Amino acid sequence: MSPQERLEQKLKKLFVKAFATYGLLSDDDRVLVGLSGGKDSLFLVKMLAKRALITHPRYSVEAVHVRMENVHYETSTDYLTDFCRELNVPLHIVSTSFDVDDADIETSSVEVRKRLRRQKSPCFLCSWNRRKMMFNLAQELGCNKIALGHHQDDIINTALMNLTFQGRFDTMPALLKMRKMPLSIIRPLCMMEERDIAQYAEWHGYQKQVKLCPYETDSHRNDIRQLYAMAESMNPDARHSIWNALNSEGKLVGDY
Q: What is the pTM of this model?
C-alpha cells in the first residue's frame, strides 16, 4: 500500500475502535456535527458520512456551522456547503454573538454560573455560545447526538490544562451524556493523533480558514502544547501513559 492508503486504513480502524470502545453510536441515532471549518471537523463530517453508508449501526448525519458575529475568524461558507453537498450531508449555517458583560449567567446551572463568572474570557464565552446554538438546533432537528472534532491531542492537552490550572484530573470525554436533555456529546476522533489528521487533510487538499481567531495566541493551550511536547521528548510513550490514566480513572465516559 501507498503511505496515503496506510494512513487512511489506520484512521478508519481508530474510528471504528472508538465507536466500539466508548459506545458512541447506536441504530437510529441522529447526529449533528459541529463543523467549524478546520481540518478536524471537515475530516469528522467525511468519516461520519462515509460510515453512515454502512448498514450497522444505522444513523443519519447533519452538520451545523456557527458563525460568531463579533469574533472575526472565518471559513468560506461556499466551501463548506459544497463539501457537505458532495457527502449528502445537510448543512445548517447559523449566527450568534456574545457580550462579556451580558453573558447568559442567571439561566444556567449553579456550576456553570460559577464558571461563567470566573472565566469571562473571549475564548470561554465564544465556546459557550457556540455550544448553546448547537444544543438548541440539535433539539429542533430531533438529533440525539452532537459530534465534535476533538482528537486525542485535544483531550490529553485538556487534561494537562485542568491539572495545571484547575487542580483537577479531568478532560473532555469521548462520550458525555446530558442529564437534563436527551442529548449526548460524542468525539469520534478521540483515538486519533492530530498529526495524522493534518497529513490526511493536506493530501486531500482541505481548504484552510480564511482568517484565524484573533485570540488564538492568547490561550494557555499553546503553553500546554509545549509542555506536552516536552513530556513526549522525555518519554515517547507519554501519550499512552496519560491516555491509560484517563481511561482507568473513568474520565473518557461521563454525564453532565
A: 0.88
Question: Which residues, at least 6 apart from 197, have a Cβ–Cβ distance to it below 8 Å?
Answer: 11, 39, 40, 43, 151, 189
Q: Write a three-state SS string for 137-176.
A: HHHHHCCCEEECCCCHHHHHHHHHHHHHHHCCCCCCCCEE
Nearest to 74 by CA among 191, 214, 244: 214
Q: In sequence order, which residues have a C-beta less than 8 Å from that of residue 68 and are 6 or more positions away? A: 95, 96, 97, 98, 126, 129, 130
Question: What nine digits make up the cell of 232?
Answer: 513526549
Residue 247, judged by CB atoms within 10 A of its CB (0-12, 13-18, 19+), counts as middle
Backbone angles phi, psi at 138, to 5 degrees: -60, -45
**What are the tens digits of pLDDT across the range 69-86?**
766 666 789 999 999 999
The answer to whether the beta carbons of residues 156 and 228 sit under 8 Å apart is yes
Give the residue from 67, 36, 30, 74 showing the smallest Cα distance to 48. 30
What span, in angstroms and rounded, lies between the C-alpha atoms of 34 and 65?
Answer: 6
Q: Which residues contact 172 (CB under 8 A, 6 or more apart)?
A: 150, 154, 155, 158, 187
Q: Is the dihedral of CA 9, 10, 15, 16 positive or negative?
A: positive
Taking a C-beta distance cutoff of 8 angstroms, is the pair 4, 116 a contact? no
| Cα–Cα distance for residue pair 183/189, rounded to 1 Å | 19
Count of beta carbons in the 10 Å neighbourhood of residue 165? 11
For 228-246, how does the pLDDT look when each residue is reduced to its tens digit (9 = 90+)? 999 999 999 999 999 999 9
Residue 43 CA to residue 204 CA, distance in Å, equals 10
